[in-house]
């Protein structure tokens, strides 16, 4: 091979690597600065009037409502991997069913290890370590 062909291969390879790195670093942007509304937690649905929400900011801070209490935590996103630190929240009392849903949501956040966003619906799916879907959220309108 001549020098031009080798140079072209090297430049092409570097370009592919750069695009690959950029696509992995951009992944997660689709999660950030969107308020997500829980539709299902561990296959049990949710109480509609108990608005359980999640907002992940660009700096990795995350907050929302468990349905009764406001919470704060931090999220780490790397490719399709997603983890949350344990949530800290206010301590208001609500109906038992709402409190139960809130605890299940906080537990789902702590168990989250990865995520997917369904292209057709834009829904966010949180997955546990085994890949099982543990929560489904939609963009809040």
TrEMBL record:
Give the protein name, as stated in the record. DUF306 domain-containing protein
* Positions of the DUF306 domain: 30-135
Q: Known PANTHER family for this protein?
A: HEAT SHOCK PROTEIN HSLJ
Which InterPro entries would you find in this protein's record?
Answer: DUF306_Meta_HslJ (IPR005184), HslJ-like_sf (IPR038670), Hsp_HslJ-like (IPR053147)
């Amino acid at each position: 091979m001549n020098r031009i062909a080798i140079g072209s291969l090297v430049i092409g390879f570097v370009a592919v690597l750069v695009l690959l790195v950029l696509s992995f670093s951009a992944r997660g942007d689709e999660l950030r600065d969107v308020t997500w509304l829980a539709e299902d937690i561990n296959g049990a649905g949710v109480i509609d009037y108990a608005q359980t929400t999640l907002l992940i900011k660009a700096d990795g801070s995350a907050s929302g409502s468990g349905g009764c209490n406001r919470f704060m935590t931090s999220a780490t996103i790397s490719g399709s991997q997603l983890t949350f630190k344990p949530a800290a929240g206010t301590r208001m009392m609500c109906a038992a069913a709402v409190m139960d849903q809130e605890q299940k949501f906080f537990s789902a956040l702590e168990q989250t290890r990865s995520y997917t966003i369904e292209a057709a619906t834009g829904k966010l799916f949180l997955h546990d370590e085994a890949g099982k879907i543990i929560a489904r959220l939609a963009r809040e309108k």
